[in-house]
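Thread title: Can someone regenerate the structure for this chain?

I was given the following input by a collaborator and told the matching C-alpha coordinates would be attached. They weren't. Posting the sequence so someone can regenerate them.
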Amino acid sequence: MDFLQNHIEALIFCSPTPVKLADLKSYMSEMFNAEVPDDDIQAAVLGLEEKFKSDEFSFQLYKSSGGYQYLTKPAYQASIGIMLKQQSKKRLSTSAMETLSIIAYKQPIPKTEVENIRGVNCDYAIQKLLDKGLIEILGKAETVGRPILYGTSPKFMEYFGISDLNELPTPKDFSNEVNTIGETSDNQ
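Best answer:
Regenerated them for you:
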Protein backbone atom coordinates (compact mmCIF):
# COMPACT_ATOMS: atom_id res chain seq x y z
CA MET A 1 0.00 0.00 0.00
CA ASP A 2 2.89 2.40 0.75
CA PHE A 3 4.10 1.90 -2.82
CA LEU A 4 0.73 3.04 -4.21
CA GLN A 5 0.54 5.85 -1.65
CA ASN A 6 3.98 7.13 -2.67
CA HIS A 7 2.96 7.26 -6.34
CA ILE A 8 -0.25 9.10 -5.49
CA GLU A 9 1.67 11.50 -3.25
CA ALA A 10 4.03 12.30 -6.13
CA LEU A 11 1.16 12.85 -8.58
CA ILE A 12 -0.70 15.22 -6.27
CA PHE A 13 2.52 17.06 -5.43
CA CYS A 14 3.40 17.62 -9.10
CA SER A 15 -0.05 18.63 -10.29
CA PRO A 16 -0.71 22.40 -10.55
CA THR A 17 -4.44 21.75 -10.05
CA PRO A 18 -6.42 19.49 -7.71
CA VAL A 19 -6.29 15.83 -8.79
CA LYS A 20 -9.57 13.92 -8.80
CA LEU A 21 -9.85 10.33 -7.55
CA ALA A 22 -10.95 9.16 -11.02
CA ASP A 23 -7.81 10.68 -12.52
CA LEU A 24 -5.62 9.04 -9.88
CA LYS A 25 -7.24 5.69 -10.69
CA SER A 26 -6.62 6.21 -14.41
CA TYR A 27 -2.97 7.17 -13.85
CA MET A 28 -2.30 4.25 -11.51
CA SER A 29 -4.07 1.74 -13.76
CA GLU A 30 -1.88 2.80 -16.68
CA MET A 31 1.22 2.81 -14.48
CA PHE A 32 0.67 -0.74 -13.24
CA ASN A 33 -0.99 -2.08 -16.41
CA ALA A 34 -3.82 -3.34 -14.23
CA GLU A 35 -7.05 -2.01 -12.78
CA VAL A 36 -6.41 -0.44 -9.36
CA PRO A 37 -9.46 -0.77 -7.06
CA ASP A 38 -11.19 2.42 -5.94
CA ASP A 39 -10.87 1.32 -2.31
CA ASP A 40 -7.07 1.14 -2.63
CA ILE A 41 -6.91 4.65 -4.14
CA GLN A 42 -9.16 6.06 -1.42
CA ALA A 43 -7.19 4.29 1.32
CA ALA A 44 -3.94 5.75 -0.05
CA VAL A 45 -5.43 9.27 -0.11
CA LEU A 46 -6.75 8.87 3.44
CA GLY A 47 -3.29 7.70 4.51
CA LEU A 48 -1.77 10.84 2.97
CA GLU A 49 -4.34 13.04 4.72
CA GLU A 50 -3.42 11.48 8.07
CA LYS A 51 0.31 11.64 7.37
CA PHE A 52 0.32 15.38 6.62
CA LYS A 53 -1.95 16.38 9.53
CA SER A 54 1.11 15.99 11.74
CA ASP A 55 2.72 19.19 13.04
CA GLU A 56 6.05 18.17 11.52
CA PHE A 57 4.74 19.20 8.07
CA SER A 58 4.07 22.79 6.99
CA PHE A 59 1.56 21.69 4.35
CA GLN A 60 -1.44 19.41 4.26
CA LEU A 61 -3.52 17.47 1.75
CA TYR A 62 -6.78 19.33 1.15
CA LYS A 63 -9.85 18.38 -0.84
CA SER A 64 -10.54 21.19 -3.28
CA SER A 65 -12.61 21.52 -6.47
CA GLY A 66 -13.48 17.83 -6.39
CA GLY A 67 -9.84 16.77 -6.18
CA TYR A 68 -6.84 16.78 -3.87
CA GLN A 69 -3.89 19.14 -3.62
CA TYR A 70 -1.22 20.13 -1.13
CA LEU A 71 -1.66 23.54 0.46
CA THR A 72 0.31 25.31 3.15
CA LYS A 73 -1.17 25.22 6.63
CA PRO A 74 -2.59 28.52 7.97
CA ALA A 75 0.08 28.68 10.70
CA TYR A 76 2.68 29.50 8.04
CA GLN A 77 0.75 32.33 6.41
CA ALA A 78 2.98 35.05 7.89
CA SER A 79 6.24 33.64 6.52
CA ILE A 80 4.69 33.11 3.10
CA GLY A 81 3.39 36.69 3.20
CA ILE A 82 6.93 37.94 3.82
CA MET A 83 8.27 35.91 0.90
CA LEU A 84 5.55 37.20 -1.45
CA LYS A 85 6.17 40.78 -0.31
CA GLN A 86 9.89 40.48 -1.00
CA GLN A 87 9.24 38.86 -4.37
CA SER A 88 6.93 41.71 -5.32
CA LYS A 89 9.87 44.09 -4.84
CA LYS A 90 11.53 42.29 -7.73
CA ARG A 91 8.84 43.48 -10.10
CA LEU A 92 9.74 45.14 -13.36
CA SER A 93 10.20 48.90 -13.50
CA THR A 94 7.95 50.95 -15.76
CA SER A 95 10.74 51.42 -18.31
CA ALA A 96 11.52 47.68 -18.34
CA MET A 97 7.82 46.86 -18.72
CA GLU A 98 7.46 49.33 -21.62
CA THR A 99 10.54 47.89 -23.30
CA LEU A 100 9.32 44.33 -22.76
CA SER A 101 5.89 45.20 -24.18
CA ILE A 102 7.42 46.60 -27.34
CA ILE A 103 9.63 43.55 -27.76
CA ALA A 104 6.71 41.17 -27.12
CA TYR A 105 4.45 42.78 -29.72
CA LYS A 106 7.06 43.64 -32.37
CA GLN A 107 9.51 40.72 -32.10
CA PRO A 108 11.97 40.05 -33.55
CA ILE A 109 13.08 43.66 -33.12
CA PRO A 110 16.45 45.46 -32.94
CA LYS A 111 17.25 47.74 -30.00
CA THR A 112 17.30 50.82 -32.23
CA GLU A 113 13.67 50.28 -33.20
CA VAL A 114 12.68 49.82 -29.54
CA GLU A 115 14.47 53.09 -28.77
CA ASN A 116 12.71 54.85 -31.66
CA ILE A 117 9.33 53.76 -30.30
CA ARG A 118 10.13 54.67 -26.66
CA GLY A 119 12.07 57.81 -27.55
CA VAL A 120 14.83 57.06 -25.04
CA ASN A 121 17.93 54.89 -24.70
CA CYS A 122 16.97 51.31 -23.74
CA ASP A 123 20.40 49.79 -22.98
CA TYR A 124 19.73 49.40 -19.25
CA ALA A 125 16.18 48.05 -19.64
CA ILE A 126 17.24 45.52 -22.28
CA GLN A 127 20.18 44.37 -20.16
CA LYS A 128 17.90 43.91 -17.11
CA LEU A 129 15.39 41.94 -19.21
CA LEU A 130 18.21 39.75 -20.54
CA ASP A 131 19.51 39.23 -16.99
CA LYS A 132 16.04 38.19 -15.80
CA GLY A 133 15.74 35.84 -18.76
CA LEU A 134 12.52 37.45 -20.02
CA ILE A 135 13.98 38.25 -23.44
CA GLU A 136 16.61 36.56 -25.53
CA ILE A 137 18.71 37.24 -28.58
CA LEU A 138 17.04 35.73 -31.63
CA GLY A 139 19.81 36.46 -34.11
CA LYS A 140 20.92 39.33 -36.30
CA ALA A 141 18.97 41.38 -38.82
CA GLU A 142 19.89 41.24 -42.50
CA THR A 143 20.02 45.05 -42.63
CA VAL A 144 23.01 47.40 -42.58
CA GLY A 145 25.11 46.89 -39.49
CA ARG A 146 23.39 43.56 -38.75
CA PRO A 147 21.82 44.68 -35.44
CA ILE A 148 20.93 42.09 -32.80
CA LEU A 149 17.27 41.04 -32.80
CA TYR A 150 15.45 40.53 -29.51
CA GLY A 151 12.38 38.49 -28.67
CA THR A 152 10.64 37.03 -25.67
CA SER A 153 11.86 33.84 -24.00
CA PRO A 154 9.98 30.85 -22.56
CA LYS A 155 10.49 32.45 -19.12
CA PHE A 156 8.46 35.43 -20.39
CA MET A 157 5.53 33.07 -20.98
CA GLU A 158 5.92 31.59 -17.50
CA TYR A 159 6.26 35.04 -15.87
CA PHE A 160 3.00 36.26 -17.42
CA GLY A 161 1.17 32.93 -17.22
CA ILE A 162 0.58 32.47 -20.93
CA SER A 163 1.37 29.53 -23.19
CA ASP A 164 1.37 31.32 -26.54
CA LEU A 165 2.04 34.87 -27.74
CA ASN A 166 -1.45 34.91 -29.24
CA GLU A 167 -2.74 35.09 -25.65
CA LEU A 168 -1.27 38.59 -25.25
CA PRO A 169 -3.97 41.24 -25.06
CA THR A 170 -4.55 42.93 -28.38
CA PRO A 171 -3.47 46.57 -28.53
CA LYS A 172 -6.50 48.81 -28.25
CA ASP A 173 -7.36 51.01 -31.18
CA PHE A 174 -6.68 54.58 -30.20
CA SER A 175 -8.74 57.24 -31.90
CA ASN A 176 -7.25 60.64 -32.52
CA GLU A 177 -9.65 62.74 -30.51
CA VAL A 178 -9.69 66.39 -31.42
CA ASN A 179 -8.96 68.77 -28.55
CA THR A 180 -12.28 70.43 -27.78
CA ILE A 181 -11.20 72.58 -24.85
CA GLY A 182 -12.45 76.13 -25.24
CA GLU A 183 -14.75 75.33 -28.15
CA THR A 184 -18.46 75.99 -27.90
CA SER A 185 -20.90 73.27 -28.76
CA ASP A 186 -23.74 73.69 -31.26
CA ASN A 187 -26.27 73.08 -28.46
CA GLN A 188 -25.77 76.50 -26.86
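The radius of gyration is 26 Å.
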